[in-house]
Specification:
CATH superfamily of the largest domain: GAF domain
Number of domains: 3
CATH architecture of the largest domain: 2-Layer Sandwich
Distance between the termini: 33 Å
Strand order of the largest sheet: 1-3-2-11-12-13-6-10
Order of helices and strands: EEEHHHEEHHHEEEEHHHHHEHHHHEEEH
Largest sheet: 8 strands, mixed
Radius of gyration: 25 Å
Length: 394
């Protein structure tokens, strides 16, 4: 059973055939799908426009136009579609169908003598109907796994991941490490240093080490720090920092006399705000040169604004945050005007990876809307699965 939530503007074509578990958003319009049974959702069933996309021929021709434009980057003629269409059709028949699709906002004609070019609505249809059911090819699976497993350190794996994501698209590969509060802790150590400062060393899943020199509110002895670290390592290995702190607070509430001092000291030493949660989050980006050379960006001002946005870590983190809250495995967004004026030409394909039902990080591809969606979506999904499996096994 498939459950889905649908909202569209009144003027947008209505869609019903949903083939995968992902969300596609376009401005104020968005679609949410889930292939997970038993999930509670509000269900709306709406039909496509009976004169256009309920007709199989219109669906097939629109698919062919989008695929051809993705491959060539040139306006698509009716003759080229007639030649590649499985059903024998005359160019005149195809031309009439393409005119219908243009009237409905799926295609547009750059100028009178040119062929047609897909609109964002056409890409949306293509992603839902064609790219959604696709799976990563055995060659891509082997290549991605080989590239990531060749890295020697957790940081190198993340850097390699952004490189691979960039390579499968004409755009930007992005990999964002988890915020400190969501990191799964494998080991904690506290070291006393001069002037009553404490070096906090956190080892998180995947062998990542985060350390921070802090000045706590009170003075500690090394034996006090060792006792706190022993308690945390005994009871909280495999917990996120956030969950660990919640449990410590609950301990204080249950038995302040027994746990109060130790738990309060642990809460003080493991406070993400003190440990610099914002500064610890790393963003790995690859492919800025590729996206800068895309033909879609003819305005130097727009390109400059886009490159400045890419350089701002917080904006990239905010951009990929949508896939964290979404229940579907892959999030697709078309048109990113909120990022920059050049964003209207861009699409974002992103996913999160998790450990023990806790989101650990996000990854994605930011590229021109004319991209090979089948390969991009399946590569993002496979890579997120790879990291989730590694987190669970670490």
């Amino acid at each position: 059973m498939r459950l889905f939530l649908l909202r569209e503007s009144p003027s947008a074509p209505k869609l019903t055939q949903f083939a995968a578990a992902f969300r596609l958003s376009l401005g104020s319009e968005w679609l949410l799908f889930s292939g997970v049974t038993g999930r509670h959702a509000e269900i709306f069933q709406e039909s496509m426009s009976p004169t256009i996309l309920q007709q199989k021929r219109h669906q097939q021709i629109l698919t062919d136009v989008v695929r051809t434009y993705i491959e060539t980057g040139e306006p698509v003629s009716s003759r080229s579609i007639a030649r590649r269409h499985i059903e024998p059709l005359s160019p005149a028949t195809v031309r009439n169908v393409m005119a219908d699709l243009e009237d409905e906002g799926y295609l547009y004609q750059p100028h009178t003598s040119a062929g047609r070019v897909p609109t964002a609505a056409a890409y949306r249809f293509f992603v839902e109907q064609v790219a959604a059911p696709a799976t990563a090819s055995p060659e891509d699976r082997q290549w991605i796994r080989r590239e990531l497993e060749a890295a020697q350190t957790p940081e190198a794996v993340m850097e390699r991941a952004s490189h691979v994501l960039s390579a499968v698209s004409r755009g930007l590969g992005i990999f964002i490490s988890p915020p400190l509060a969501s990191s799964v802790v494998e080991h904690i150590r506290f070291l006393l240093v001069p002037e009553n400062r404490v070096l906090v060393v956190l080892v998180t899943t995947g062998g990542q080490t985060r350390d921070k020199l802090i000045r706590p509110e009170r003075a500690f002895r090394q034996e006090d720090l060792d006792r706190i670290a022993t308690h945390l390592n005994r009871h909280y290995v495999g917990w996120t920092l956030e969950a660990m702190r919640a449990d410590l607070r609950a301990q204080v509430e249950r038995d302040r006399e027994q746990y109060g001092r130790l738990a309060n000291d642990a809460l003080m030493l493991c406070d993400p705000a003190i440990l610099g949660d914002n500064t610890e989050r790393k963003v790995y980006v690859e492919g800025a040169a590729q996206i800068a050379s895309a033909v879609e960006f003819t305005s130097q001002d727009q390109l400059r604004e886009l490159l400045e946005a890419i350089e701002e870590k917080d904006r990239l983190i905010a951009l990929l945050s949508g896939c964290i809250e979404a229940p579907e495995p892959v999030h697709v967004e078309l048109g990113l005007e909120k990022m920059s004026s050049a964003g209207k030409h861009l699409a974002l394909v992103s996913a999160s990876y998790s450990s023990k039902d806790q989101v650990q990080g996000t990854l994605g591809i930011l590229a021109p809307m004319r991209m090979h969606y089948e390969r991009v979506i399946t590569a993002v999904a496979f890579m997120a699965q790879f990291f989730s499996e590694n987190e669970e096994g670490s």
